[in-house]
Sequence to fold (352 residues):
Amino acid sequence: PHRKMPMSEIPTLLKPAELSPATEITRQICQQMDRCLLGREELHKLVLVGLLSRGHILLEGLPGLGKTALVRTIGAIMQLDFSRVQFTPDLMPGDVVGSHILQETDSGKREMTFEPGPVFTNILLADEINRASPKTQSAMLETMQERSVTLRGKTRFLPDPFFVIASQNPIEMEGTYPLPEAQLDRFLFRVKFESVDATVLQNIISDRRHGDLPTPTWQADRDSLTYLFAIMDRIFLPKPVAGYIARLVAATHPGNAEAPEAVNRYIQYGASPRAAIAMGEAARAHALLDGRPTVGFEDVAVIAKPVMNHRLILNYQARFDRMDSDKVIDELLEELDDAGLELPEDVSLQNA
Fold:
């Protein structure tokens, strides 16, 4: 017999009076981003989803498209500290996380003093992160995962919140060190930074002399950001939607019963469990931006590609057939039924 759920196990959904102010804050943030940075409304929304999910974002695009301007604008709107590090082959770990220096005290003694690096901030722009050596890249792992820095046996926690927004050039690979899969998996999203159309370029040329960005006319304070995080934690993820996320991630592995032909043909290794966790959090944030207290299948469809496109390891056949991870995910979303119902071939959901 069906067990009735005790009252203590029934989740308390957000009331409209609680959700509406949070949705209004996110609308204002997106509006200011759209005003300062023209022509990328969907990308701005996706970046905000990543930040509300407390995740790191990898921006992939050619130089000069406005990646640095995006990060600076986010920092200005949310009143968060911002640091930028230009990654180069000669950059050392101490240049990023900080190091100990010998200083003389007022009493004349010399002692080692910790000098914090640029990673001690709220938003760190890691520009062209794939140009740094593997040693420097590995120094970023602890900061991204643990949000702390450990030097000489002492752990120092980074400011809260802390986000890494990294960029890399997908075309020019000479003198670069491709990010290892372990570090790619630390990024919640990989977002492709595309060029804008001629109409947007005309507006930029006409209104933005020397590329100067306008000052935001509205800013969110720290309390507003804390409030958004608290509301995010209360967005409800129904079991059917959680099951759909789990099935999506499992179906990225070749040989899975629900894996489509593209996965079995082109994927060597599928997404990790961290991808499922990231997808659940990002879906909650997307529901918040749309003003809904409950995550729906449509939220998963929007964030599935940026969550998984850098977590799928393609095989050599994919290179021969010019297949990329985005196309595989498109086929996966098209073929995998979100409801998970095994209906006879002559029965459709519309007739059920």
